[in-house]
Design a protein that fits this description.
Blueprint (H helix, E strand, L loop, with lengths): L5 E3 L4 E3 L55
Antiparallel strand pairs: 1-2
């Protein structure tokens, strides 16, 4: 048995990786879930802009790794 992930667009199946088989195979197709598109998501790009802030010392060395930084 060989499993391959693919996307069905209503006409064609498009594998997500190359399929390396050299003979014909009987297949079973299982529809798992619809593919979510960016436009289907409950938020839009950039909606968190200005609502998050990095600490001033974000790039400072961490004490936990001090012994490895020498």
């Amino acid at each position: 048995m060989y499993a391959v992930k693919a996307v069905y667009d209503g006409v064609n199946f498009k594998p997500k990786q190359p399929i390396a088989v050299k003979e014909e195979y009987e297949v079973i197709i299982t529809f798992v879930e619809p593919v979510k598109k960016i436009s289907d998501l409950p938020f839009k790009r950039g909606c968190m802009k200005g609502k998050m802030r990095l600490a001033d010392d974000f790039n400072a060395p961490l004490e936990d790794f001090k012994e490895y930084m020498q």
